[in-house]
Amino acid sequence: MIRNSLVPLPLAQLPWRIILLVTAITGFGLVVLYSAAGGSLRPWALGQGIRFALFLALAIALSRLDEARLKAATMPAYAALLVALVLVELIGAVSGGGQRWLDLGIVRLQPSELMKPVIVLVLARFYDLVPAGEIRTLRAVWPALLLIAVPAAMILVQPDLGTATMVAAGGVAVMFLAGLPLRLFVGAIAAAVPLGAAAWASLRDYQRNRVLIFLDPDVDPLGKGYHISQSKIAIGSGGIAGKGFLHGTQSHLAYLPEGHTDFVFATMAEEWGLLGGLVLIAAFLALVWWALRVAMHAPTRFARLTAAGLSATIFFYVAVNLMMVMGLAPVVGIPLPLVSYGGSAVMTVMIVVGILAALDRSRHSHRPRFG
Predict the structure, then answer these.
(1) Is the Cβ–Cβ distance between 254 and 268 less than 8 Å?
(2) Sheet strands (E) in the chain
(3) pLDDT, tens digit, for every residue of 19-71?
(4) Which of 53, 83, 97, 314 is 20 to 30 Å from 112 at the Cα level?
(5) Model-level pTM?
(6) DSSP-derived secondary structure letter, 13
């Protein structure tokens, strides 16, 4: 029987350092969005701030859950999101060439974003149930691959290559951390070559162009390679200390496309320079380090795998976006969490923070059992 699944949480027990850290990252992002709008709270900074406040409240609520409740909610949440992804395909709202949202009237829900933390939870739960003696057998592999492949394929159809990649990466990270034989991952990399050729044939033209332009953006610097070229110019022109707040040219003169979403780091780097970029990266690294510490001190297998997998999710978010805007990875539409405009990424990261805070708090009250 599950007891005290919703634990009272006095203010003193709130993870204030993490709350202050994510608030500082978001606050800096709001400053960047304010500047990107030409010195105005609208249309981006004000809405982003309101969304963050709501999702911060959600994260605090999630931090009150204990591990037993998280385990109990994992499979139902995964099943519900699969149903939501089917509904997206049937009746989803179309925007920007993709069918990724459910229009609920007061809000547009993107189920694929929620799948990022849930895929980690469901695989952590799966490997928590797998006996230690079977972890290196086929029975520990194919169900996990199926749990990953089904939502990833449904998201890829939308089409959303970036989110599908993130979901798959989060799931594979948990498989690796669970202790599966390294030869399986080496074999998977070897098999990726012919599978990659098949996947290339199934990509749409704009997705192929993203990869080709990543390999050589100078092929079409005023067309398909325009985003990456302008992003590099903005980052490079910022120098060490930047051009100064509200003094960016690439973003203010509309040379930099998507300067408030996918390429917000370039907008920031132009005005705040290398120093601003290093401070922001250091803040994200501090967040990932806290998540890893939660994993290292977790008392149960489920908590360890969940915390480690969620720390990988945050890391993938930041790393892929930074590589994308610097021309080190194809443009796959991954935003910079808490900084880029848009509620979906903020929601995902704050759910991750809330779950990590719950696991961090639960370990203090955990009592090991013997026998």
Answers:
(1) no
(2) 93-95, 98-103, 108-109
(3) 999 999 999 999 999 999 988 998 899 999 999 999 999 999 999 888 999 99
(4) 53
(5) 0.87
(6) G
Give the H or E element holding residue 256.
none
What is d(CA 240, CA 242) in angstroms, rounded to the nearest whole number? Answer: 6
Q: Which of 232, 211, 230 is nearest to 330 (CA)?
A: 211
- What span, in angstroms and rounded, lies between the C-alpha atoms of 226 and 236? 15
pLDDT computed for residue 332 by the predictor: 79
Greatest CA separation for the chain: 68
Strand arrangement, sheet containing 108-109: 93-95, 98-103, 108-109
Place of tokens 């009237």: 105
Q: For residue 330, give the nearest of 167, 212, 158, 156 by alpha carbon.
A: 212
Sequence-separated (6 or more) residues with CB below 8 Å from residue 21: 283, 286, 287, 290
Residue 17 has a CB neighbour count (10 Å cut-off) of 9
Instruction: Enumerate the domain spans of the chain.
Output: 19-364
Cα 159 to Cα 82, 146, 155, 202, 334, distances in angstroms: 16, 20, 6, 11, 14
Backbone phi, psi, residue 162, to 5°: -65, -50
Torsion of CA 255, 257, 261, 267, to 10 degrees: -20
pLDDT digits (tens, 9 = 90+) for 258-294: 888 889 999 999 999 999 999 999 999 999 999 999 9
Residues 6+ apart with CB under 8 A from 142: none
Rounded Cα gap, residues 152 and 211, in angstroms: 19
